Amino acid sequence: GLRSFLRPPGSGKGTQSPIIKDEYCLCHLATGDMLRAAVAAKTPLGVKAKEAMDKGELVSDDLVVGIIDEAIKKPSCQKGFILDGFPRTVVQAEKLDEMLTKQGTKIDKVLNFAIDDAILEERITGRWIHPPSGRTYHMKYAPPKVPGIDDVSGEPLIQRKDDTAEVLKSRLEAFHRQTEPVIDYYYKKGVVSQLHAEKPPKDVTAEIQKSLS
Ligand code: AP5
Ligand code: ZN
Question: With a threshold of 0.95, does the pTM exceed it?
Answer without folding.
Answer: no
